[in-house]
Amino acid sequence: MSSDHQQPKSPSDSDSDSDSDATLDITSGLSDIMRRLDQLWDDRPGPTPLYDLNGRQVGGYTLRDVIGQGSFGVVYRADDPKNDRQVAIKIPRPEVILQTDRMQRFRREAAVAKSLDHPGIVPVYDTQLEGASPYIASAYVDGPDLGVWLDRAARPVDFLPAARFVAKLADAVHYAHDRGVTHRDLKPGNVLLESSASRPLSLDDYSPRLTDFGLAGTLSADGRSTRASMVIGTPYYMAPEQAAAAGGADSRPADIYSLGLLLFELITKRTPRKDATYHDVLSQLLSGAKQPDVREIRPDTPIALQAILNKCLQHHPRDRYALAADLADDLDRFVAGERVSVPPPRRTDKIVRWMRLPRSLEFAGKYALIFHTGTIVWLLLVTLLAWVFGFVPNGGYLKNLLDMAFVASVFHGPKALLGWQLATGRRWAYLPSLLSSFVLLAVVVYSAVGESVAFEQNYPTRFSKLNNFSILVTASLGEVVCEIMAWPAWRRLRRDATR
């Protein structure tokens, strides 16, 4: 018979259950937060009734409808009766006003944007940075942002209009760089489209206007960013060094990388890492995953345009265009049908890129670890089989074991350890591993052709010895090749560390 009556719990039982429930609540809560972050990290928040301030007066401007909204602030279309025009008013959210560091970012954005005067950058007319109602008043651009326009577009942009558009953006970015300002958050949502035709039909009918310098950095005398180390930007449009939060690094190459991603999206109507989660995008950037290849999506992409994209999207900053102006010039040459400054892609480019990435060092380490651990096991197996089938003369088994212990402790054991260190990111292991690989290759070749070398009693004929040692020679040669190919990555990492 069942009963609803339950035995009373002791205090200890109650505490235990409470702790368990709390732990479960916290764990499930964290899991839910992470899941929601993955779902929402790139969403554009829409207007909400909370910020409907139509008719409200702010600094002499009359607010109208909400035209943009983000996690930091809300942008309104507003009337400027004094100058008889419409403006865009950016007002920080209430919770932002109460946070000193975020208000400092708002002030920085105002100062940076007000210092820039270029046709490709939205001008700032007026700012109010103190008091209860801080704001930034800038020009009102009546067109959509590039992200909205792309969402509405029925197909990707043709190559020439896309190149012309990004060339204009690159010119604006170069202007900012020339004045010590880096944007660091170039994405479609931060590119407003100003119509140059009464009825715009294509991207050529719009002029890009760069906006939102909320993450902008300023450059020190040596050309490096003065901002502290932190992950900044939108992951879909982020450069690898931004994902690594390389504090003090020059952010100009990051802007060039983002311009390349914008060009990629214009001509393919998708981002290279479409549908990836926040965590996946950061992992791909940090690991130097495969470079985006536009011809996999659009095989008809002209070789010259592919070369420009490849130059922009190089993993390492030094391999990209040195200046945004250089990118703009190359795009102008492409549009004019002239030869671009970067060479066309070659079949060997992928191999060369891989050789420069830290992954090549890790691969060389894994190869060495597997090869030398496997060789020790193979030596033990060969010695055991030789003893079982009587190839080892009486009294020779102990000598075989001693020979194997000597070879394992002097050669293969240390090499396996060096490989393990290299595979787990210990860069110091590279040079010892490379030098010992050459020594071991010489020893293995000599052992294969020599008359009196360890383990000769395991092979009944000279042919059987050569046959077995040929595998060892081939594997040793492969190890040398892998480690030579990792040389560019090791040099680059060493150079970066000294800097």
What does this protein structure show overall?
A hairpin with a 3-residue loop joins strand 2 (61-69) and strand 3 (73-80). 51% of the residues lie in helices and 10% in strands. The model is unreliable at 1-31, 37-47 and 220-231 (pLDDT under 50). The strands form three sheets. The chain has a six-stranded antiparallel beta sheet. The protein is elongated, with a radius of gyration of 32 Å. The chain is of the alpha+beta class. Helix 9 packs antiparallel against helix 10 (324-336), helix 12 (358-388) runs antiparallel to helix 15 (462-485) and helix 14 packs antiparallel against helix 15 (462-485). The protein folds into three domains: 49-139, Phosphorylase Kinase, domain 1 (2-Layer Sandwich), CATH 3.30.200.20; 146-345, Transferase(Phosphotransferase), domain 1, CATH 1.10.510; 358-498. It is built from 16 helices and ten strands.
Provide a compact summary of the structure.
Helix content is 51%, strand content 10%. The protein is α+β, with helices and mostly antiparallel strands and 499 residues long.
Layout of helices and strands:
Elements (H helix, E strand, L loop, with lengths): L10 H30 L16 E2 L2 E9 L3 E8 L4 E8 L1 H4 L2 H15 L9 E5 L6 E5 L6 H7 L6 H20 L2 E2 L8 E5 L10 E5 L6 E2 L21 H4 L8 H17 L9 H10 L15 H10 L11 H13 L12 H8 L1 H31 L8 H27 L6 H20 L12 H24 L1 H12 L1
Helix pairs in contact: 5-7, 5-10, 7-9, 9-10, 12-13, 12-15, 12-16, 13-14, 14-15
GO molecular function: ATP binding; protein serine/threonine kinase activity
Keywords: ATP-binding, Kinase, Membrane, Nucleotide-binding, Transferase, Transmembrane, Transmembrane helix
InterPro entries: Kinase-like_dom_sf (IPR011009), Prot_kinase_dom (IPR000719), Protein_kinase_ATP_BS (IPR017441), Ser/Thr_kinase_AS (IPR008271)
